[in-house]
Amino acid sequence: MKYLLVFALIGLVFWMWRSQRMDHKNRPDKQPADKPTNSSGSTGTSRTLVPATEMVACAFCQVHLPRPDAVAGQQALYCSTAHKQLAGE
Ligand SMILES: [Zn+2]
Asked: In sequence order, which residues have a C-beta less than 8 Å from that of residue 83 and are 6 or more positions away?
């Protein structure tokens, strides 16, 4: 009877440990499974983020600057109106 109790306790502890491990196992398993959908979703979000942070190179001095800060010429983008004029636009 004493052994039965010990076995029951061990069985309970083992079951709890196993279910906890399964939980831990399930979480990392779920993340990679979610990641493809998340990464495809994040590419969608990065796509929306890209226009704000997109870097363009000045056609005159090749300096990189955020696209919103760039001065648009007829054929290219420039870092400043001075370089736009120097480039002959
Ligand atoms: Zn420039």
From this structure: 58, 59, 60, 61, 71
Distance 77 CA to ligand 1 centre (A): 9
The domain containing residue 61 runs over which residues? 54-89
- Do 7 and 44 fall within a single domain? yes
| Contact status, residue 37 vs residue 30, Cβ threshold 8 Å | no
Cα(61) to centroid of ligand 1, in Å? Answer: 4
* pLDDT at residue 29 tops 70: no
Q: What is the pLDDT of residues 34-67, one digit of tens each?
A: 555 554 555 555 555 555 578 999 999 999 999 9
Same domain, 4 and 40: yes
What's the 26 CA to ligand 1 centre distance in angstroms? 53
Tell me: do 43 and 12 sit in the same domain. Answer: yes
Ligand 1 centroid to residue 71 C-alpha, Å: 9
What is the 64 CA–ligand 1 centroid distance (Å)?
8
